[in-house]
Design goal:
- The complex is a heterodimer of chains A (360) and B (121).
- Chain A has helices at 57-62, 69-84, 90-119, 122-143, 163-189, 191-197, 205-210, 215-220, 250-274, 324-336, 344-350, 355-359, and strands spanning 5-9, 21-27, 30-37, 152-153, 156-157, 292-299, 302-310, 316-322.
- Chain A has 360 residues and is an alpha+beta fold.
- In chain A, the strands form three sheets. Chain A has a three-stranded antiparallel beta sheet. In chain A, strands 6-7-8 form a three-stranded antiparallel beta sheet. Chain A has a two-stranded antiparallel ribbon with strand order 4-5.
- In chain A, strand 4 and strand 5 (156-157) form a beta hairpin.
- Chain B has 121 residues and is α+β, with helices and mostly antiparallel strands.
- Chain B has helices spanning 7-14, 50-54, 81-85, 116-120, and strands at 37-40, 60-63, 68-72, 91-94, 106-110.
- In chain B, strand 2 and strand 3 form a beta hairpin.
- Classes of the chains: A alpha+beta (360), B alpha+beta (121).
- Chains A and B meet through helix 4, helix 5 and helix 6 of A and helix 1 of B.
């Protein structure tokens, strides 16, 4: 046994899309301990609730993260709607579900691209991001924005979609499904990819539960904690069943995300074919009362939690967001213990870290 | 375990058109709903100031005395709140983005509002 050394990893590192710093204590090329530190992109967005009213705050919440912007907006509106007892029309709920699943597709394709880049598989990375672009174009057509959609609001949606858009979505999903098929084979069967992912960073079911892992990290270890089962949106009406894998290694987490892509395709197709007619918003009267409400949302990365507290004025008293990466960092630190130095990048990537979300 | 799973996709892409566009030589195609920047039809504006009050970033300034409608392009977040609130429907989202700039651009529009005295006469 040699002497231990500390290697700083991040905040600037080729595999990291966002800044997180890790001090890796290394002994004989094995990681003994990893100490994470965050705080590089804190923007104080929760504090803005003091100066922005509850409708304006929506635009701030959407800007917490560029990848799950729709999910954040929806989670916040769910919390405010719960606080103000607003019932959203069926059509709006179906459309919100469809838009959220579309953003899951673009988030997972982005992540698959980052994983391929981390593996050193440049062409696979390019192809994943090429497909993601199709989803972004679809978003632009439907909402007017590629990343920040501003389509959700307290009480429903700001814009309805037209039958032509419905057809466009169905067409794009069909072509995406064919193209994702060819990439799935690479991620799940190719020897070079499997060598890097299989058996790396095992997280058992008990550990995942104990460390409060969420999202695909927990589902890759067989923990069924999908918030979509709690009745948000129209998931239960659509017969949604979460995807679970038992192995708990990087390969299982990758497989969960790939299978979720197909599940999202199915859900969106189902919604676009069965979309009910009707209004997409209801008028919201009054101000948020002096009470509080917690809403939970299944983001592409896992469970996010939105707390709002009203005080009878148009400004909220308090607004708090807990994001999935925050919950997954302990699981990441656990899997890093005892791993090879070369696998560190894979382990950090497979929790799909979103530091902008975490620090807000 | 199989190898060369990517080979077919890579070979196919050799004979396909590139997925990227040669921007700016090939202009970007905007969609009907693209929120590029806020545009104003000056003739229809009545300087009511609702847009300025609705703006979450205070990017719009309405000066009744000077008869100007000003927008700070760098503060505007293209949320479309002003467009939705405008009672005269003189505001609209134009699809193209504002050109890149190294300065904070403020666009000032002079509103040809009829003078009170003239209308009274």
């Amino acid at each position: 046994m040699g002497k231990s050394t500390i290697i700083p990893f991040g905040p600037q590192h080729p595999v990291l899309p966002e800044p997180v710093h890790l001090d890796l204590e290394i002994m004989d090329e094995k990681v003994v301990r990893a100490i994470p530190s965050i705080g590089y992109v804190h923007r104080g967005l929760e504090k803005l609730t003091e100066t922005k009213d509850y409708n304006e705050m929506f635009y701030v919440i959407e800007r917490i993260c560029g990848i799950c912007s729709f999910g954040h907006g929806w989670g916040y509106t769910l919390a405010v709607e719960g606080l103000m007892n607003v019932d959203v029309p069926d059509r709006a709920d179906y459309l919100r579900t469809a838009l959220h699943e579309l953003s899951r597709i673009h988030s997972h394709l982005l992540w698959l691209g980052l994983l391929a880049d981390g593996l050193g598989f440049e062409s696979l990375f390019m192809h994943c991001w090429r497909l993601r672009e199709k989803v972004l174009d679809l978003f632009e057509k439907m909402t007017g924005g590629r990343v920040i959609f501003s389509i959700c609001k307290v009480g429903g949606l700001r814009k309805d979609i037209t039958p032509e858009m419905q057809n466009d979505v169905l067409k794009t999903i069909k072509s995406l499904r064919n193209e994702v098929n060819s990439l799935t084979k690479v991620f799940l069967d190719d020897a070079s990819v499997k060598n890097r992912l299989c058996g790396v960073g095992k997280l058992s079911k008990t550990e995942a539960v104990d460390l409060c892992a969420v999202g695909p990290v927990a589902r890759g270890s067989g923990v069924n904690n999908d918030i979509r089962l709690t009745g948000i949106g129209k998931y239960l009406d659509l017969g949604f069943k979460p995807i679970l894998e038992e192995d708990g290694d990087c390969y299982a987490r990758c497989k969960v995300r790939i299978l979720e892509l197909y599940q999202s395709f199915d859900l969106i197709e189902q919604i676009m074919l069965e979309l009910p007619q009707g209004p997409v918003d209801v008028p919201v009267k009054g101000m948020p009362p002096s009470n509080d409400f917690i809403a939970r949302m299944e983001q592409p990365r896992g469970e996010a939690f939105y707390y709002v507290q009203g005080n009878g004025t148009k400004y909220l008293q308090r607004m708090r967001v807990r994001t999935p990466t925050n919950a997954n960092i302990p699981a990441m630190v656990k899997t890093l213990q005892g791993c090879d130095l070369t696998d560190v990048s894979m382990l950090i990537l497979t929790i799909d870290p979103c530091i902008s979300c975490t620090e807000r | 375990m199989a190898s060369f799973k990517m080979a077919k996709t890579v070979l196919k892409s050799l004979f396909k058109k590139p997925a990227t566009a040669m921007y700016p030589a090939v202009p970007r195609e905007w969609t009907e709903r693209t929120r590029g920047h806020v545009g104003i039809i000056e003739e229809n504006c009545i300087l009511c100031g609702i847009c300025a009050r609705k703006c979450p970033t205070n990017a719009i300034v309405v000066d009744r005395k000077g008869k100007t409608w000003t927008i700070n392009r760098m503060s505007c977040i293209q949320c479309e709140s002003c467009v939705e609130a405008c009672p005269k429907k003189c505001l609209a989202m134009a699809p193209s983005y504002t050109p890149p700039s190294v300065e904070k651009i403020t666009d000032i529009f002079e509103i040809p509002l009829p003078d009170k005295e003239k209308t009274e006469a």
